[in-house]
């Protein structure tokens, strides 16, 4: 059984125990109300005592429910903080791996020029394995191509050059360095050259 399943099971057991305790307390109150109704009919002095006891019981139930709700909120908050911590730790590792991935891409381009097929196949296997491992951990390449519209929120412009054609004005002319995102968060923006 995984830690996550065990934590879920423990949470359900605690919740069940709390619900049973609340049900038991409600049953006791109802039983005492029924017996007290009969007693109250006989004496008016006991009625005020019964009301006071009911009020005390209600206050204790409210206090218990608030404490339980506060505990549930605490558990949710700490679980969220733990997930955020794991994501942040993963982001630091992924950011450190990006230069290695870039070097690997450059090495692949140079090997293609050399023409050595056996060397190329071996290095390509390792390259693909590295990319797949990083992808499995949530790293994705930001897709940017020549001719895409430049968006300052998604791209980092390194320089502007005169557009080779009119249709590339204000658009991406070249991608200097690819960008990557981890989940939905961009951890490195693609570095591009734009046409003016």
Automatic annotation (TrEMBL):
UniProt cross-references to InterPro entries, sorted A to Z: GrpE, GrpE_CC, GrpE_head
Pfam family, one: GrpE
Coiled-coil region: none
Xref: SUPFAM superfamilies: Coiled-coil domain of nucleotide exchange factor GrpE, Head domain of nucleotide exchange factor GrpE
Listed GO CC annotations: cytoplasm
GO terms classed as biological process: protein folding
Listed Basic and acidic residues bias regions: 1-27
GO terms for MF: adenyl-nucleotide exchange factor activity; protein homodimerization activity; protein-folding chaperone binding; unfolded protein binding
Biased composition (Acidic residues): 28-49
Cell compartment(s), UniProt: Cytoplasm
Complex and partners: Homodimer.
Its biological purpose: Participates actively in the response to hyperosmotic and heat shock by preventing the aggregation of stress-denatured proteins, in association with DnaK and GrpE. It is the nucleotide exchange factor for DnaK and may function as a thermosensor. Unfolded proteins bind initially to DnaJ; upon interaction with the DnaJ-bound protein, DnaK hydrolyzes its bound ATP, resulting in the formation of a stable complex. GrpE releases ADP from DnaK; ATP binding to DnaK triggers the release of the substrate protein, thus completing the reaction cycle.
Designated name of the protein: Protein GrpE
Protein's organism: Christiangramia fulva
Primary gene name: grpE
């Amino acid at each position: 059984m995984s830690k996550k399943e065990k934590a879920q099971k423990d949470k359900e057991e605690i919740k069940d125990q709390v619900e049973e305790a609340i049900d038991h307390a409600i049953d006791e109150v109802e039983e005492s109300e029924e017996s007290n109704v009969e007693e109250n009919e006989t004496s008016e002095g006991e009625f005020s005592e019964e009301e006071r006891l009911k009020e005390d019981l209600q206050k204790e139930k409210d206090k218990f429910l608030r404490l339980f709700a506060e505990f549930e909120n605490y558990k949710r908050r700490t679980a969220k903080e733990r997930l955020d911590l794991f994501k942040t730790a993963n982001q630091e590792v992924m950011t450190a791996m990006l230069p290695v991935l870039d070097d690997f891409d450059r090495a692949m381009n140079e090997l293609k020029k050399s023409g050595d097929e056996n060397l190329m196949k071996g290095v390509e296997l390792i390259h693909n394995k590295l990319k797949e491992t990083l992808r499995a951990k949530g790293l994705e390449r930001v897709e940017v191509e020549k001719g895409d519209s430049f968006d300052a929120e998604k791209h980092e412009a390194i320089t502007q050059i005169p557009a080779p054609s009119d249709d590339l004005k204000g658009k991406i002319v070249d991608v200097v360095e690819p960008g990557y995102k981890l989940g939905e968060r961009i951890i490195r923006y693609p570095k591009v050259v734009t046409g003016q």
